[in-house]
Amino acid sequence: MSQHHFPPGPPPIKGAIAQLRFLSDLTKDFMGFLVKNHELYGDIFQFQIGNMRQYVITDPDLIHQVLVAQAAKFQKDSDYTDTKRGLARFLGNGLLTSNGDFWKRQRRLVAPSLHARRIEAYADTMVNYALDTVNSWQDHARLDISEEMRRLTMRIVGKTLFNADVVDDVEDVATAMEVIQHYFVEGRAMLLPTWVPTPAERKARQARRALDEISYRLIQDWKTTREDRGDLLSMLLMAEDEDRKHMTDEQARDELVTLFLAGHETTANALNWTWYLLAQNPEVEAKLHAELDTALAGQPPTLADLKRLPYTEMVVKESLRLYPPAFGFSRVAMEDLEIGGYFVPKDTVVAITSFITHHSPQWWDEPEAFQPERFTPENEAAQQRYAYVPFGGGPRVCIGNSFAMMEAQLLLATIASRYQLRLQSGQVVEMLPLITLNPKDGLPMTVQQRQPVAVPELVLA
User: Fold this and answer.
1) Could you tell me if residue 300 is inside a domain?
2) pLDDT tens digits for 430-460?
3) In which domain, by residue range, is 255 found?
4) Residue 258: phi, psi to the nearest 5?
């Protein structure tokens, strides 16, 4: 293989003005840029901005190479790990932003807090908060469902993460996270030094201070008793490594804010897109209602009920295929290597665009159709491996994927048992790719109360 055998791609962007214009356009239509170049150049392409070269891959076999087969040759890239300009500036050195031996140690310390038995204890909390949400709704009310889901998942993660029922604290953390998301994605296009006190920079610094103040206060509050309160914070602070050492306050703070972002934003947006898809596909919604009415008979779901709600799980999985909250993620090559017959120089950023892979007709029949039956056990077993990566894969697969799936299914079952959510005629909902995939300008919908109807048991094809 020639060392100069690089993937195809658009011409390099040279010159400061051209780079600024390109980054500004990229921020406005990031997904459109990826889709257009994928159509032009295929399953691996590159683009260059000045001296920076980035690859984009969408082929499942190539994804497997990066996440699994050659995972040891990659690490998280500076968009995340740079403490001056990357996400680590705000989240610190948590699981999302750390690398190497430190990341491995932190993952071992965090893992027990997300063990199956631990997260199963949160099922009732999730359902109770969902009931509280729908009990506040009025029939035929028009609501911003993205705000409703944000508030719901925010309360759940606040309770399960640090046992906080104090809405003000949780709201402040969520607001800070929203500021950081917008700054991280949009502010970088300005390419200004962080010491320039722009309004966006000042808001971002204030958000970081808010995260610090709340996190360290909650950590100190726990230390007054040092009891296992059943929340994730207790587990984080009680965890010991092989040398019987605990996390420092700073490390615990970083994992707290990382878990808050992951546990709040991703599930909220997974539910947002699920409601959007159900509203557009009444035949799928009818099947979902039939399963819920039969299995639950009007009662709130429990953890044990999930075994009797296979179609509910399929609906969630198919929604994650069409609108994966983690629509893309990236790694950086730690050495020269080869992927798909192309040379990958050391320090090259390799972006995995799960959104495009999930929508590719190479791997999915009728990829734009909302078909939960793709995820029957038989169909799921026949899927191309790594054509479906809503939670990533390999050693860095999302550590909270079981928590997220359980939460999404329980919240969907609780709410859909009692309400149908409707879009206005002709309503257009656009995507807003921040750190997670959001509905742009919210998700205004009309909520319509429904009564469970006893029906014969649903047979899945």
Assistant:
1) yes
2) 999 888 999 999 999 999 999 776 554 544 5
3) 16-449
4) -65, -45
